[in-house]
Amino acid sequence: MPDSSSIIGPEIGAARGNEDIMSAVERGRFNTRGVVAGPDQVDMNKVNLLHPELWRSQKCFEYFQWLRDNSPIHYTEDSPEGPFWSITRFDDIVAVDKDHERFSSDSKYGGITVVDLNEGFKLPMFIAMDRPEHTKYRKAVQPVLDSESLKNFEHLIRKRTIETLDSLPIHEPFDWVDKVSVELTTMMLATLFDFPQEERRKLSRWSDVATGKYNKEICPGGEAQWQAELTECLMKFMTLWQERGNRDEPGHDLLSALAHNAATKNMTPQELLGNLILLIVGGNDSTRNTMTGSVYAWNKYPKEFEKVKADRSLVPNMAAEAIRWQTSLAYMRRTAVEDVEMHGKTIRKGDKVLMWYVSGNRDERAIERPNDFWIGRPNVRRHLSFGFGIHRCVGNRLAEMQMRILWEEILNRFNFIEVLEEPERMPNSFVRGYKSLNVILHPL
Ligand code: HEM
């Protein structure tokens, strides 16, 4: 059997500890491209599931199929990020995700990505906290993002969606990622924070900076630039924070919610920055890539989309199916805080555990015809894209609403959005995303 690393190129590199996930991926970007081997051609005990080529080529799906069938609780002893366990079946992922007593998200064990959180300039975020600390932040923001409160945003989000779609070039190729997905998610974030719309691109810039400290394309000035730009973000939000906190009547936005909640109004600047960045990053990449993925899916499964064109009441189903099919966040990591037995294997205290949502969402044991985009799918909202348990995505209703509005407005205008070539994908094992998607519009 050939050596796995020679078939899929050298491993990502020696990134460990103080590196973030993007930097690790980016440094792998220049590795050998070419034919990526299938799981039967390599030694699966040695294969590096984080390898960017597996993600760029989408070969990762074959690897997860193999793991679900042959080794559902799988140990990778040696990877650039150290050893880790992979959980690949739907039911096992749900079990680990719900077992937050034994599987921690806390940054003191390393947090929620395979690369341990930076030890230096710490950004405390409630996604990387356990109970009881996690509860106080989540409770403060949840009311702004529940279905009832979202009605306050629906009108504005629709207005901005309409303006964006109406400004697109007709019969002329353009990049859907830049002109629509990035634009709409950024506008939505500005709406959520009641942040000045004219400065909205700063939000996506700060989101990129926060996750791209070692990415030379994003932060050529390295850590110094990273700190400087995040400090600018903090200063801007501190001003807004004070202004919102001084208002007698809190607004409907996220900043007002945090500034008026007894448990969060006295946050330190570092806590404020960390949790703001979480909301910015959380609301940015994942929704953006689902918007792009849904247009790509239209081209792959045109017959399915004929159904939604004929019956608009299927739009919410289509949105939920796009969220499952895309699975914008491929995995979340936990750390075992005690020894745990699963399928006859022992996960040791301190081990990293990756719950591969992207695999669970394609598990035929739990989901019928999981590889197909199927708008009439029974229980279409029963998927893993938002996680499960106490950290289940707090923005899930918002993401569904944005997708629904976008598609209602798309169908009001276009007969088809034609994808001109295969998309350029991010070579990233955490965020499953698109760099660009060239399309041409065919109006009604
Ligand atoms: C948490 C996915 C949209 C904010 C999560 C988690 C996942 C996820 C998988 C679970 C993390 C864990 O278990 O450790 C997605 C996807 C989205 C999306 C696929 C879009 C399709 C949003 C939006 C926001 C948001 C629009 C809004 C601001 C958050 C926050 C958390 C979170 C704050 C942390 C929740 C906690 O720790 O209690 N998201 N998300 N997300 N998401 Fe989302």
Number of helices: 17
Give the mean pLDDT: 88
Count of spatially separate domains: 1
Rg value = 21 Å
How many strand elements? Answer: 12
Main CATH class: Mainly Alpha
Keywords: Heme, Iron, Metal-binding, Monooxygenase, Oxidoreductase
Protein name: Cytochrome P450
Family: Belongs to the cytochrome P450 family.
InterPro entries: Cyt_P450, Cyt_P450_B, Cyt_P450_CS, Cyt_P450_sf
Quick description:
This protein is α+β, with helices and mostly antiparallel strands.
List keywords for this structure.
about 10% strand; Cytochrome p450; 17 helices; alpha+beta; globular; 12 strands; disordered N terminus; about 450 residues; three-stranded antiparallel β-sheet; five-stranded mixed β-sheet; binds protoporphyrin IX containing FE
